[in-house]
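Morning, I've got a small favour to ask if you have a moment. It would help a lot if you went through both lines with me. Thanks so much in advance, here it is.

***
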Amino acid sequence: QVQLVESGGGLVQPGGSLRLSCAASGFTFSSYAMSWYRQVPGKERELVAAINYGGGSTNYAGSVKGRFTISRDNAKNTLYLQMNSLKPEDTAVYYCAKGRFMWFARENDYWGQGTQVTVSS
C-alpha cells in the first residue's frame, strides 16, 4: 500500500532553517508529481510547493518563493523541502502528497501524516 512518511519537523528560531523529508513507498515514486502542503488549525490546507515526476519543474506559493526549495531523489524514493529564512508565519503542520499525474495538477490521492514545524524565539 502507498505510504508517505514525513520527518524533519521541529522547533526553530526565526531566520533558521529546516529540511523536511518524505519517504515514499508502495508506488512507482518516479512516475508521479509530489507536493508539500501546510495547515494551521482553523485554516484550509495550502499548497507550499510542488515538483513534477522528474524534478525538472517546480511550483511555489508566493509566500515561500525564494526561501523554500522542493526537490526529490527518485533513486531513494524521497521528497524534500529545504526551508530557509523561516518566519513565525511558517508555523504549521506540513504534509507531503502524492499527485495523481506525472505533472503537477493540484490533484492528490495520498497524504502523509504530517510533521509539525514551529518557528518561534
User: Anything to note?
Assistant: The chain has a mean pLDDT of 97. The chain is about 0% helix and 50% strand. The radius of gyration is 13 Å. The longest strand covers residues 18-25.
